[in-house]
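Methods: holo model generation. Sequences were used as deposited, without trimming of termini or removal of tags, and paired with ligand SMILES retrieved from the corresponding compound records. Each pair was processed once, and we did not select among multiple samples. The sequence and fe (ii) ion SMILES for this entry were:
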Amino acid sequence: MREPGIYNHGGEYGFLGLRQGAHPGMTAVISESFRMPLTRRTDTPTVALDIPSRVDALDWTQITVALDGQGCSVLKGLLTSVECGGIAALYPEEAHFRSRIVMGRHGFGRGEYQYFSYPLPPLIQQLRPALYGRLYGLANRWNEAMGIDIRYPASHEAFLKRCHDAGQTRPTPLLLQYGPGDYNCLHQDLYGEQVFPLQVAILLSEPGRDFTGGEFVLTEQRPRMQSRPEVVPLAQGDAVAFAVHHRPVQGTRGVYRVNLRHGVSRIRSGHRYTAGVIFHDAK
Ligand SMILES: [Fe+2]
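and the model returned the structure below.
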């Protein structure tokens, strides 16, 4: 996502109340999620904060191969349906957020999103360092391959200190809400000089049940070639890890750098919620 300068939403929370009324499906969708029997990870019937071990249990060999090959990879079943519903249900609760962006006002697309404030919700707070810990090695390898001098520390805490020392102190994890006709234009989530080259987005709604359309889309701009599109199918609770900006590609005459953008295609019906986990903080 992008943040158009310092976004003052002081007068907007009234709108949020109206928005709930204007989107009767939203409450219905969320409460339905709470009632849904667990179809994924039935071993975790309640919100379980075993996030580090759950992240470690993913197939990181396969994930790394996919990130190297396509610039993105699915993290299957990262969250349960109950956890997804719990995070999506935070959307109307203004105390959790520092800023709200209405995409249509900035030419970003259509729909809206909110940046969480610190302290982050426990699930997001645990996911961020756990995922970072599995991705920083790949980020360092990519930078080495691309001839970029920057290396990332092993702990997310140390990386956040680097962001904060550079004046990037505002949290970037966010919650996105799309309704019928909404979409997200292709973009890169860059918030300052300090950038972690990978990020993760978690689909909180169930395709086909809660919404139709709304596919996660990635494009890769290659030197002297036309752009390559990639559509990533996700189920509720799945996450996609992907390159924020650049990644290295091995060519016949050495490594070259490709430029990635991501977005979401038009939602045809229903409502779609996503949580974005961005590892660098914002100015
Ligand atoms: Fe984004």
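Residues 1, 187, 189, 262 surround fe (ii) ion (CB under 6 Å).
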